Amino acid sequence: MSSTSNLKNLQISILHFWNRGIRSVSRMRREASIPLRTIYYNIDKLKQTGSLQHRGGNGRPRVLDGLEKKTIGQFIKSTTKKDLEVVVEVITVFSKQTTLLK
User: Fold this and answer.
1) Looking at the whole model, is its pTM more than 0.70?
2) What residues have CB less than 8 Å from 46, skipping those under 6 apart?
């Protein structure tokens, strides 16, 4: 069993206890052999969001989305070497200006 499916099973067990009205951490631990820290973490998440779903929004946001990447790829395929040199020059100047603004 992978750690992801094990975590999911633990969350299902905690949610089952929660829905049955069992709020005792020691009872959950005794009956389901779930680590205390996992129980506390998931109960906090239930109290804050009402769900055990992943909160999302973690990590660095993408600089370009799929449409922008596709557009740039199409542009590069349809241009000549000289055009690309101009684009590189413009991007270099733009990135220097952006750095100065920070």
Assistant:
1) no
2) 14, 15, 18, 52
Q: Three-state secondary structure along the chain?
A: CCHHHHHHHHHHHHHHHHHCCCCCHHHHHHHHCCCHHHHHHHHHHHHHHCCCCCCCCCCCCCCCCHHHHHHHHHHHHCCCHHHHHHHHHHHHHHHHHHHHHC
Sign of CA dihedral 69, 70, 75, 77: positive
Per-residue pLDDT of the chain (102 residues; tens, 9 = 90+): 457 788 888 888 998 898 899 889 999 999 988 899 999 999 998 888 888 887 777 777 778 788 888 888 887 788 777 777 887 888 887 777 666 555
